[in-house]
Every structure is written in structure tokens, then in C-alpha cells.
Amino acid sequence: MIEYNRPSWQCEHCGRIFKRKCNAVQHETVCRHNPDIKKLCYSCKHYDNNGWNTEEIEVWRGNDYEAREIQKNRCEALGLNLYNPFHMGEDLRIALEEESYMAMPTINEGCERYEQYKKH
Ligand SMILES: [Zn+2]
Prior knowledge:
This protein has 2 helices and 8 strands, in the order ββαβββββαβ. With 120 residues, it is α+β, with helices and mostly antiparallel strands. It has 2 domains: 7-38; 41-103, no CATH class. Strands 3-6-7-8 form a 4-stranded mixed β-sheet, with no helix packed on it. It has a two-stranded antiparallel sheet with strand order 1-2. The chain has a two-stranded antiparallel sheet with strand order 4-5. The longest helix is centred in the N-terminal third of the chain and has 10 residues, at 21-30. The chain starts with 8 loop residues before the first strand and ends in a 17-residue tail after the last strand. The mean pLDDT is 92. Zinc ion binds at residues 11, 13-14, 16, 27, 31, 33.
């Protein structure tokens, strides 16, 4: 029997184990538990998911508008619609900003109106 004792790397945000360091480094940049990525709003008492209702937004695609379904998240403290910019294309982000949607702050960015009601 051969026992291997290879080094491994663990994501410090979610605990996932990787055999290759490059994969662990890559994963940490997109890990949804990373406080640079994870959005503060989901654990805030001012966050309202509006029953996961959606709204149609017109997105400019370079030569024409395209309708996109957007989840209508809201911040009750700021009175603004919110969007999660993670994995979102630039054109959709611009359309949402024009409709006065605000990008959700990350845990590390913080928010002065934040009031925690549940664990991250
Ligand atoms: Zn992770």
C-alpha cells in the first residue's frame, strides 16, 4: 500500500478542499462566501425580496433593446431597488443604474443603514 501525503489547499471562506493551489486561488475569487463578494443585504432587516417578483427592464444591446426579467429586490431603509452585480453583464448593469437600481454592497464594503437580522 502506498500512502500519499500530498499538499492540499482549503478555501478560507467555505472550507472546500483543492488539490491544486491555482484552483483554490481561482475559487476564492468567486466563492460566494467571500466577504468581498457576498452581499450584505441578504442578512439585513431592511432587505425586501418582494416575494421574488420580477420586473422587465429594457437593456440596450448595441443596436436594439432587449427585455430582461429582473428580480425586484428592495431596500426599505433607502427606498431603492437593489441588484446583485455578481456575474452580471455590463449592459444590464448600465440599464439597472439608469432605472435607479443600486448595487448591493458587499460585507466588506458595508452599509450605514445595515441592521442584521440573521447570520450571514
Ligand atoms: Zn469557497
